[in-house]
Amino acid sequence: MTELAAPAALAEPPSAPAAIDRRGMALYGVLGFAAGHPFYMFSTVLALRLQAHGVALAVIGFFAWVQLLPTLKFVWAPLLDRYAIPGFSRFYGQRRGWMMLAQLGIFTSLVAMALTAGDARLGITALFAVLLAFWTTTLEVAADAWRIELYPSQDEQGPIVAANLWGYRGAMVAAGSGALLLADWGGWTAAYLAIAAAAFLPFPILAAMRSNTPGARDRLPALVTGVIASIAILGATAAATAAIGWVILSLAAGAGIDAGTNVTPWVLACCMLPFLLMAAALPQIRRAPPHARIRRSALIGPYVDFFWRYGFGALTLMAFVSLYRMGDVLALNLSKPMIRDLGYSLSQIGRADSVVALAASALGVGLAGWMVTRHAMTWMLAIGAVVAAIGNFGFVWLANQPVSEGLLYIATGADQFGNGFAGAVFVVYLSLLVNPRFPGAQYAFLTGFAFMLPRLLSGAGGSIVTRIGYDNFFLLSGALSLFAVVFLPLLAQIRPRSEENA
Questions:
Q1: Which terminus of the chain has fewer CB atoms gathered within 10 Å of its CB, N or C?
Q2: In angstroms, rounded to a whole number, what is the distance separating the alpha carbons of residues 295 and 460?
Q3: Number of domains in the chain
Q4: Which domain holds residue 134?
């Protein structure tokens, strides 16, 4: 199968734009909507909920580590390429079968978070937040793999990615602002139940779609079997997550880690570990012939293939993708607590996160989706880094202004426009790095690793803010995003190899 050589073409604009697939855009708008609703509920909204219940800022920072789960999706992503969900996959196909299971997982996790919205036991809150993050990520893995299979080229990816992110960011904004407005009016339980109902809406749409599996029939038996199998899978996943969480918390308590512990040095050490391991393994990977066990393995073969193709250039790629979205991720969890501390109400934050954020994000995504089909990826990545950094610097500006809802709208709009633009460009770029032989696993690995370093540091964000203050924190996060531009000339020199030119 032909392999994509995206980095080699960074300086070249794509060929003439392909015809727009409007049905595909509509489908991926729905899938983006399905994945976007839950995200703020285990990140920004959860941070404000914990703050409202008097949880220490350092502990709120620790909860940002729930967002590490999407960075580890490469651990279970190969399962989605290899196995099918009983019932669902028989009628709807393997990819949609996993999407439907993930939808049920998202719904049940949100309901559980609603029923424990008092946060009386933070361990239980963390359990359901982790399950919500897990099933949200699983939905994204299945949808991304299907997208890369259906639309392999840069000019095809642009409109589909834009539609997907319109749905995703629209749902994020609707969930974030809607949850805050509902929480201010009726409490956190009502807010989470409402978002659970909204997040479940795409499930009947997926269930009503026609089968694309040859010879598939009997929709109702497939649905019933799929739901029964899903209940068993959801229960087993919850039990396994609780057991793993208990072990981790016990180890942390034994090591003396609590809200007063300075975890930043340990986090930085963990951030360096993946790079050291990759560098140590690369010489053996580069020498591996096609029949080598590590290249044929169903579990690690897709990841070995990435390093085999890019060699030591993979380290440069990994460093770049780790920095590119740094500012957005660091700002995500602590921007809302900072705004709340400035004196803004939940309703004011919710209004800013509704129409203003939605319009700004949609504009950023749409502009990037259009420009990426006409301009070289180098320039698109550079512009994305700049506008994302400006969004972070906007929080520093807001912190030094009098409380004004209009100024909050300006800062929120700048942040969401930058996030939308940089996010759309980044998705297309990572999609082009993937070998079409392993779309699900390799894209999961790239997106997971891209957010591993930022989310590790985000978990220590509360501790960092207590030492350097909000202003310096957001200045630092914006500067780190800008620093990614330094890598662009190096990326243009990296070319993947194939079996023919090895």
A1: N
A2: 36
A3: 1
A4: 21-262+325-486
